[in-house]
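Human: We require from you a protein record containing the residue sequence and its fold in token form, and nothing else.

Assistant:
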Amino acid sequence: MEKHKTGNGIEKTNLHPRNPHRFGYDFVALTAICPELEAFVFTNKFHTQTIDFNDAKAVKTLNKALLQSFYGIENWDIPDGRLCPPVPGRADYIHYIADVLASKNDGIIPEGESVCGLDIGIGANAIYPIIGNSAYGWSFVGTDVDKRALQNCVEIIEANPKLQDLISLQLQPETRFIFKNIIETDEKFAFTICNPPFHASAEEAAQGNLRKTGNLRNEKASKTVLNFGGKNSELWCEGGEIAFITQMIYESAKYPKQCFWFTTLVSKSDNIKPIEKLLKKVNASEIRIVEMAQGQKTSRFFAWTFLSEEQQKNWQF
């Protein structure tokens, strides 16, 4: 990852040009806005202020500060053990979706609440709708199979009046489905957005967390395996990422005129070719793979549409 020093710190040039987090974290400014963050900030051996990113409370408090500073969210919290998303990476996905929308709108990013996104698996954090609404004024429908996650989203929305009437929530009553029970016959969405479950089992998710924290033989890491953020539906599903996305693609073909762009993150590079093949099988009229950064690794999302060129021209954002 290319980096260079700027007047504001070290620029993360792999992040989207409109991503406000390109210049790292200004902990002086963030702690001024969110004083509780100060307890987690320290100076590392490189004489740089940082936090322990393996500390769930530290990361959650950093998120609170970022959402307050950059997105006008005064009250945000998630229960212990819930997935705490890295804000810069989530922001990248939103900004690249904006580019995809603009590519079919004379290069102009469509803004305002008439542009509605469908967040598949909104979780307890509501991070994509928060960023998308702040950056572009978009409205969202957020879905999840987890009632408690949705209830926490309700609390976030109620605690931040600016989000009311712009984010609606819907429980997916059947865990094996993605769009069924959600997209009604008279509904249209500009895009869908999704961070699918990565792992195929709870055991695989636990092992993945151990690798993430450093060393499988590290005693300290092994003791934290049951304490990492994320509930079952957030981290794993039967068949893992490829099974989830396969179901999503087959279902998307049943709603060809009700969504302009279906999109989903794809973390595993081995899944790229099978997904491309499947999208061609269901006769997607256009397929895009958008490369981007997600934290310290390279990721990408797929975007596909079933609309003909004429239907795309007539779409009203």
The longest helix spans residues 56-71. The chain has one domain: 3-197+237-314. The longest strand covers residues 286-294.
